Amino acid sequence: MTRESIQAVLDIWDGAAPGFYEGDFFSYTIPEPMENIGLRLHVKPYQQPHPPIGVAGVSDYSSTLKLAGRKGWIPMSINLIPASHLKTHWAAVEEGAASAGKTTDRGIWRIAREIFVADTTDEAMDEAINGTIGRDFRDYFLQLLPDSPYFNLLKTHDDMPDAGVTAEYMAENVWIVGSPDEVEARLRKLYADVGGFGVVLVTAHE
User: Fold this and answer.
1) Which of 118, 122, 145 is nearest to 59 (CA)?
2) pTM above the 0.85 mark?
3) What is the pLDDT of residues 143-184, one digit of tens each?
4) In whole angstroms, what is the distance from residue 155 CA to residue 165 CA?
């Protein structure tokens, strides 16, 4: 679905002829322009050949991130998974790039993370776990994900029990939480654990 929808947008931007288009997942109509009044329904991008495209990966060796490598798109990794799974994301990007005869640069890789900084690590942990971030995980993610095929991706080890995935566990193993020095150290550790990346995307909770 991702490939088909992005390709549809690219085709429209590239000047696909008016008509009805039907794919495996989507159908749409490109209308005839009303040239007599200068009306067109699809505006081409100012950037050429088009704005940068970024796609997000979740699963190990994500097929979406292989596509990113193959197409030269920006790879982004979800905020929920520990470094042991994140490492496979860059492997997928490199595999996709190699299949298209391309090289790629870790500097374009973006990794999303919850980040909470306080004066002390104890204070940061308390406010993250018992505040908005912890609430969103307890009341949303940890209610939703156990029934999905992605829940095991939150675990640092395959044999970890489901009950072990808590807000406290996420704060200690996935989120970046602590004093300024601790947060710096944890970001540097994440960088080292995955072999390098370009950008941290801070996930906002409201």
Assistant:
1) 145
2) yes
3) 999 999 899 999 999 899 999 999 999 999 999 999 999 999
4) 7
